[in-house]
Structure prediction request, 404 residues.
Amino acid sequence: MLTGKLVRVRHARNQLIPLYLDPADKGWIGVIEQLLFTFRGSPGRTRGEVLEDLADLVGEGPRSLVHRGLLDLLEDRCEFEVTADHPPDELRDRVFRAAVEARAAAAAAGTPFDRAAVVGGVAAELKLAPEQVEQGLFADLKDERRVLQFKDTTPEWLLNRYNVALAQAILLRSAAMDVRVWGETPARFRQLFRQVKFHKLIGTIHQSAGESYTLKLDGPLSLFASTTKYGLQLAQFLPTLLHCKAFDLHASVRWGTERKEKLFQLSASDGLRSHLPDFGTFTPPELQLFAESFAAKVKGWTIADDPHPIPLPDGVWVPDFTLTHPASGKQVFVEIFGFWRRGDIETLARRLRKHLPGRFVLCVGEQFRADEAGDDDFGNGVYRYKRTPIPDEVAKLAAVVAGV
Prediction:
């Protein structure tokens, strides 16, 4: 993902317009081929050595923003290692302490400071060669890390990745985002809703005209806390959206040092291509683990992980599971939340009590709270947990709300 200083946009009144690259541009393809040539030969070399080789190509200043952005994305495809025979932080501590003592002794005796003697003394204490101490002293600094391997790619892939990274960097500064999706199969809609949950995003889903759905998602700048982590989750949701054939995205963005409100728009017609494979009806691992644990441990209830979105008079609710009590035939729908705020849970619980009484359990984890903690009492149907939801406790609450 691009850092803020590498984001390239132009302003049209209150709109932010990203300066995307043409994936077919031969000039940029040529630049990337040169970058790739160096990165393909990078394993075994330090990061600093690789960057030094590319310094003339990448350049500095505003005109180098694209080159530096492409460079960062290629760096993300490298696996680095720290090469040292002893932990570098411990080496530095020992050498610096020994140097302070040696300087004081040299000053008192009126003799010159002997750096080699200091390094040699520390090496002897640790049973290392002086060269090993020298090499390991700063081996954990960013430019001293060695490339273990580089995951190769193509210029076309990188140009498409750059465009997505540019859009993601803008969404990191969003306060709110509306997405309308249409023309998809039920399975695709379900995948999209699952990814909203997988990335633990706060929002609502509504049915819209023309067999479409509208997702209203909070941006990181609308939250009290966890803005960095939440912003990354929101940005990482974008590649899933790009798998959809038809969508419109409108985001309210706080831009610049003064955080002026700007509008960012994105649609399928912009031609951005997801860099991630399409996993279809992917189930988040924590939901799969809960379903397996529930089925193995809980007696008297069955669990299904494919409930359809439930239309309500004031929107759509997308639960994660259907719990069925065979003895009575009653069903209870369960949703396990990602990030949440008190007001969101209170509002949803009121809606469900009104339109789906006795048929829901909402599970909220304390580690994902995005506002200040308080003495909350959400009433019946809301299950609070610390780390992971416990199947037996969810089943017990389901029995209470269903009256079985």
